[in-house]
Write a structure and sequence with these properties.
Low-confidence stretches: 1-30, 41-46, 48-55, 103-125, 158-163
Oligomer: single chain
Mean pLDDT: 76
Distance between the termini: 157 Å
Shape: rod-shaped
Strand order of the largest sheet: 10-9-8-3-12-1-14
Helix content: 40-55%
């Protein structure tokens, strides 16, 4: 079979060669005799010339060789591309390692230390967390685009010979790890930025609150010291019996189940000194009233209930007056110049003093804060008007009256910036406590 094939090849070769120079071509219709030759004779004595392909195409062997070479070049190109991708991955991994910190500290700690030193955490990345996040996002997107381009190239060039699947799988796995690391870093930076923002806002608010409190205190001291040596060393003067001279306490009362009211006053008005103070609430204009009207004795009104007090103060001298009351059984006490002159009970028992009303000095209110009656107006001077939310002990009242202690009210203290005057009422420096005692 082999000998027959060799003979056929020789015949084809002989028929295909042209005549040598000087020789005539074979006449048409010539015949050729095919002789069988041994295989070794065909390999040594009669070398076979290459048989040209029709249409100028390459022999199969050459075409196969060209295809193999082309695939090798493609593989080399892909290896170079993969090498460049590995360099990019190593570069990004190095940046992540520098970001995490070479000393093994936590990511957040390393970030704070680098920021504190004034250096960029990742060498070429900015210090601002927002810019770092943006830069990392761009880097990750660039890496993903390059990987997609590489995959497209692999799909286009892998028709004849496919690259090893484990290499592409390794790249994808490595990219997934890097993507998770980047997302984790972005989340940490976002949390840290949010925490810093919250801490900064809380610190700013706390600082502003403290500053506002200090400013208010300074303003109070400046206002209090503008006319008087001390914020409580003043008196309110109401020289005429009118319905437009009065003082007003800025603060209001809370709900009270007991109270003590103390004040210094001086009056020589007749008949009756009028109304030193009144407290009115919506629905009840006579929630608390101290009044001496006409020839009647001094009266204490609570929730429009009346108790007469054994006080005598219309002699034109300074007197210290204290009144205590408790909702339990409506018990009350009256003190003048430190001495208890009267006590009683059943004055608006079990009635709590309502909050949110208006406290007026020198006038009796028929409505909350208004409708004053000139015949009930106080004529004289008053000072040290204080209110406590409890019943003071008799010894405390005595010590206040004889100038042994200075005890401002815990509900309403007597201070300059808490008292406004209207209609011609005035504030003046008050005599010292010792001078008031000499006036008794």
């Amino acid at each position: 079979m082999l000998l027959l094939a060799a003979g056929l090849l020789l015949a084809v070769a002989a028929g295909g060669r042209g005549s040598p120079a000087g020789e005539q071509e074979s006449p048409p219709g010539s015949r050729f005799v095919c002789t069988s030759l041994p295989l070794d004779a065909a390999g040594t004595g009669c070398p076979l010339p290459p048989v040209p392909m029709q249409g100028g195409a390459l022999p199969p062997e050459e075409e196969l060789k060209a295809t193999v070479l082309q695939l090798r070049e493609t593989v080399l190109q892909q290896k170079e591309t993969i090498g460049s991708q590995r360099d990019a991955i190593r570069e990004l991994t190095g940046k992540l390692s520098r970001c995490e910190g070479a000393d093994g500290k936590s990511a957040a700690g390393a970030w704070k230390n680098e920021v504190g030193k004034g250096k960029d955490t990742m060498g070429d990345l900015p210090r601002d967390p927002a810019l770092v996040i943006e830069q990392l996002s761009r880097t990750m997107q660039t890496l993903k685009d390059r990987l997609e381009s590489l995959e497209h190239q692999l799909r286009a060039n892998v028709s004849y010979a496919a690259l090893p699947g484990d290499l592409r799988e390794m790249l994808q796995r490595r990219l997934g790890d890097l993507e998770r690391q980047l997302l984790s870093k972005v989340a940490e930076l976002e949390d840290e930025k949010s925490l810093l923002h919250n801490e900064t806002s809380a610190h700013r608010q706390k600082t502003e609150t403290a500053l506002n409190a200090l400013l208010e205190r300074v303003s109070e001291l400046e206002k209090g010291n503008s006319a008087f040596k001390s914020p409580d060393e003043f008196k309110v003067s109401l020289p005429l019996r009118t319905n437009y001279l009065y003082g007003k306490i800025k603060k209001t009362l809370p709900e009270l189940y007991a109270f003590t009211v103390c004040l210094w006053l001086r009056s020589s008005a007749s008949p009756g000194i009028g109304t030193p103070f009144s407290y009115a609430v919506p629905g009840q204009a006579n929630e608390i009233v101290l009044i001496e009207w006409g020839n009647n004795p001094i009266e204490l009104l609570i929730n429009d209930k009346v108790a007469q007090l054994p006080l005598f103060i219309s002699d034109g001298k300074w007197h210290h007056i204290c009144i205590t009351w408790t909702t339990r059984d409506g018990m009350w006490e009256a003190f003048q110049d430190g001495e208890k002159l009267g006590t009683g009970e059943n004055l608006a028992p079990w009635h709590p003093i309502k909050p949110g009303g208006v406290l007026i000095l020198g006038q009796e209110q028929d409505t909350v804060g208004g409708r004053f009656d000139a015949t009930q107006a106080f004529v004289g001077e008053m000072s040290q008007f204080n209110i406590w939310d409890r019943v003071l002990k008799a010894e405390d009242i005595m010590n206040i009256a004889n100038c042994s202690i200075n005890m401002p009210g815990n509900i309403i203290p007597w201070v300059d910036n808490n008292v406004d005057v209207f209609g011609g009422a005035t504030k003046w420096p008050v005599e010292t406590c010792e001078e008031r005692l000499l006036d008794l």
